[in-house]
Amino acid sequence: MMWVGREDELATLKGLFTSFSGGSVVVISGGIATGKTALLRTVGEWAAESGGLTLSAVASRSERDLPLGVLEQLFRSPGLPRESAERAMQWLDAGGLNTWAREPVPGEDAVQVPTHVLRGMLDILRDLLEERPVVLSVDDAHHADVSSLQCLLYLVRRLRGACLHVIFGECSHSKGASALMRSEFLREPLFRRIRLEPLSRAGVAEMAAAHLDDRPPHDLVTELYEASAGYPMLAQAFLDDCRDGSFRWSGGMAGEAFSRSVLAFLYRHDSPVVEVARAIAVLNKPVSPLLLAGVLDIDVDACSQVVHMLTTARVLVNGRFRHEAFQAAVLEGTPSNTRQATHARIADLLHNEGFPAVEVAAHIVAAGRLGAPWVVPILQEAAEHALADDDVTTCIRYLRAACQVCDERQRAAVVSMLVDAEWRLDPAAVLRRLHEFCTAGDAEPTEGSDNFIPASYLLWHGRVREALAILDLLASDHGAAAECEKASTVDLDGPGLWGAYLYPALFKHRRPVSPPRHDPIPVLMNPELQGADVIAAELVHGKRPGVLAAAEGMLQRSRLSERMLAPLTAALAAFTYNDRLREAAGWCDALLAEAAVRRSPTWHALFAAERAMIHVRQGELQAAEEEAKAALSLISPRSWGVMVGLPLASVVLALTGKGDLEGALTYLDVPVPEAMFQTRMGLHYLCARGRYHLATNHPHAALSDFLACGRLMSDWGIDLPVVETWRGGAVEAYLQLGDLPEARLLGDEQLRLTESEHLRTRGMALRAQAATLDVAARIAVLEEAVGLLQGCGGKLELAYSLADLGRACLLLGEPKRARKHARKALALARQCGAKAPDQSSGFDAGLGGPEGAAAQADTNPGLSDAERRVAALAAAGYTNREISEKLFITISTVEQHLTRIYRKLNVTRFELQDALQDNGAEVMDPEWLRILEKCS
């Protein structure tokens, strides 16, 4: 297949070596790996089939100075008669190699071969030609020693009339060919040159089709052509790798066979081709020949010639390898010490030439440890650029390299940058580097250093005492901040806002702003943090006027960064803890999208957890579950530190609301740090766990969690229902336990503490209070709750309130009104992904007094959801088969359900409709029935 497109020349060549009508001199010229060696082998096969004798030799660069080396190979060919071979060796050994060797004269190719040697070889060849045609084949003739070429030229000229054919294979790119090859052989009358070019794309496709079992796809042919540049040797190696099932081609990798072929391709060129190719592979960008020559410390003209040759050979395109696999093979074949030395030389030259730091830094890292004084500043600058482009992995690689070579004066700043970058990928990584920072008892930090930055990280991981000590030192009038103003507003306000958000009790009396200035006109050092005081005060005290305006201003002005993460999170929390869920969702979605685009798993995870909690409060359980699980998958629970309570609380609440109690338990089994219960996240976690206990009918455990949450909130001075409605959960627990007075006390208290502008929280408080009232008083309170919840977006709480209202109406003998509310409740619950309200709401456990309990006993015959659906369809007249088809269950399952229904209701099938109506079930309403028919 490698001869595709060369049929005419090959036909002529085959005619020469099969008819043997006369002598000839043929030069097959082509680039390395174009197939000239295979063609020479084919010519020998043609000659042998026609009765000719082929004597073969392969010249070598290492034997170029060996006199008569090629001629010796020719006359040691296996097909040569033994007598002729011995005569040839006698001439070459005794009469040739040992008697005429002398130093070559300058400007002369080599000394002349003695005449008696030439005549002796001529006699041997004449004897051979009397018996049959002879073909002398010399591959890589550009490396042939001059004395052998002189002898061959002598033989050709003396035997022009005989059937002697001399065929040479030479590299067209080589500059080392002898003058004999470039001129004397060209004068022969029967001289012919055949040029071999790389295969076309069609030729490569035909070659692939012949070597692969299946028809090669279009993209494979394209990849094959681009990687091999049409050179048969490289294409064959590519195909060999493709046939190996253990290897799959990708742009930046090279298979084993292809790598070997690439190296063979380069090594067959003259020096400095290999060295230049390695340097180009290491540089991986177009550079001037002057710079490339400087890297290799060679002559610029020689370097330019090599680049031109490789470009002409289609290996290079615009100064780079045409295919990544070719470059990968060159790099793989370069010894590691050579690569490192080349990178070091490149880094030095690029720095001296004033190249950008990002280009120099990559070579510094690849070179290993470079001790030049300019190395660390270059790595720091490149790391800043990488971080600005959100290439965190590259930034970390540069800073780690800087850490290895920096001095003590530089270390603090380098490590501080490194910690910030590593935090974006994994917050647990910072714990490994805390020993490199000053503690509160150490000496003051070096001027210009950033030693105390990790206070926010310490708070995240629950190391509160150390964080507070550092912040005290920074804010002290006698500390570094007061004297040198080393700490910016972000250095103090960032940890301060983290503290206010996470540890409201500990930061209640701390001012999370930079030390006061004594200038007559205050200067705001960081306008992005305007309003930080108001937000922090809201988080530790609550009820701060203007907090939403301050939070919105901060969110509008600020871009997500290491220093602004805490302020933006605190601003977002201000909306969440004021029941402004729609605005909170919008800002959180924007931050979440930015975090995802900027490739920070930590940021992404944090805002996914925040969004999950907002989804929970909006009643969007499926979305809450997905976001919380995504947050926990982005970084490990250990990396979450005390913040782990946020995603865990969200996923537990979502799964519990959906009725997936086993799934919720899985997340409750995740270990959490003890310090989490000192934080706001601990409050959310306790209430989520309490909700789980309620759903699993463990009211004592639930009450313990809710009351523990309440004690913490009271101790911290943030006992606000809008932060966490622990009283509502406690009301449900008390009702399950039959303790109506305690339930009523907490229900009234929660309503009294709820602000009128917090519509969702107030609606929940009204619902909780209604559960403690008698039926007559309950309806008005629930209607007010429904009205508030309809306007705030809390769909699931609205569904629960409607379900409670429907049950209350049913108890008062208003089944039509009850059915209307029940249908709305069911539809809303399904939108939220929750269980049916009558199953997931906890307030139906206590309906407010003896009459409520009796009524509940009458209206709840103990049928499961599945049994209710089957009962409704059976009562409507559907057959068992029709019921199985509508509910997507087997007929046997239908029969089993009906058996249990009849036993529980103590009726027959004919009495089923009346029994359901007597129990006040809404299933007989046609619209309700259509809803049930869709459930499975």
UniProtKB/TrEMBL annotation:
<dbReference type="InterPro" id="IPR041664">
    <property type="entry name" value="AAA_16"/>
</dbReference>
<protein>
    <submittedName>
        <fullName>LuxR family transcriptional regulator</fullName>
    </submittedName>
</protein>
<keyword id="KW-0067">ATP-binding</keyword>
<dbReference type="InterPro" id="IPR036388">
    <property type="entry name" value="WH-like_DNA-bd_sf"/>
</dbReference>
<dbReference type="Pfam" id="PF13191">
    <property type="entry name" value="AAA_16"/>
</dbReference>
<feature type="region of interest" description="Disordered">
    <location>
        <begin position="835"/>
        <end position="862"/>
    </location>
</feature>
<dbReference type="Pfam" id="PF00196">
    <property type="entry name" value="GerE"/>
</dbReference>
<keyword id="KW-0547">Nucleotide-binding</keyword>
<dbReference type="InterPro" id="IPR027417">
    <property type="entry name" value="P-loop_NTPase"/>
</dbReference>
<feature type="domain" description="HTH luxR-type">
    <location>
        <begin position="856"/>
        <end position="920"/>
    </location>
</feature>
<dbReference type="InterPro" id="IPR016032">
    <property type="entry name" value="Sig_transdc_resp-reg_C-effctor"/>
</dbReference>
<dbReference type="InterPro" id="IPR011990">
    <property type="entry name" value="TPR-like_helical_dom_sf"/>
</dbReference>
<dbReference type="InterPro" id="IPR000792">
    <property type="entry name" value="Tscrpt_reg_LuxR_C"/>
</dbReference>
